[in-house]
Amino acid sequence: MxxxxxxGASRGIGAATALLAAQNGFAVVVNYRHRRAAADxxxxxxxxxxxxxxxxxxxxxSEEEIARLFDAAAQLPGVxxxxxxxxxxxxxxxxxxxxxxxxxxxxxTANVIGPLLCAREAVKRMSLRSGGQGGxxxxxxxxxxxxxxxxxxxxxxxxxxxxxxxxxxxAKEVAAEGIRVNGVRPGFIDTDIHADGGxxxxxxxxxxxxxxxxxxxxxxxxxxxxWLASEKSSYAAGAIIxxxxxR
Length: 247
Known about the structure:
- About 45% of the residues lie in helices and about 15% in strands.
- The chain has about 250 residues and is α/β, with parallel strands linked by helices.
- The protein is globular, with a radius of gyration of 17 Å.
- The model has no long low-confidence stretch (mean pLDDT about 95).
């Protein structure tokens, strides 16, 4: 059986990806930091549907806890074949001159350093040169890497720009070792992350500026992630799929 680890899988895109992965035959490690009940609900839904899943608490920006998260995958049948680098944060909308160094540090630690450390652990376990069987890594970026999010989240946008560069570089580094690294770049997705930024209704405000005239859903992003994690995308490496309604 194939095993997939998804960081930040208790809500939003991560949760939708966990459910879809289970439907596609993956045993799933549902990582969460604080939302234990939500993660347990995802696991219960997967098990009720005949799948295999466990919830694992870990801060996906802590080197020690990341190692524990990846070790926990051994509790599931099969081997680790896919990792989804989904966990990330944003903070209250503001201009750059209002941002503190502490805020910038939090954003970059969670959205850049954490994902790099997670990918490192995935490579150690999946790379053919390390005795692994190969696999896939899908990095969740954001359309903010292209738009820059002026007046709102330029720090978040910068962190996602780093993820785009990392996706391309790591893809080239490990492609000959049986690991395909790709990314998705969602934008204007209807999840509760917008409430974290202080504007729960952000999608409604922006939808008229989106060519498709609507926000996207977490399930739509999950479909792209699962495609990149599957053999259907077998010649894709270093690709980043925009999922932003044409924006």
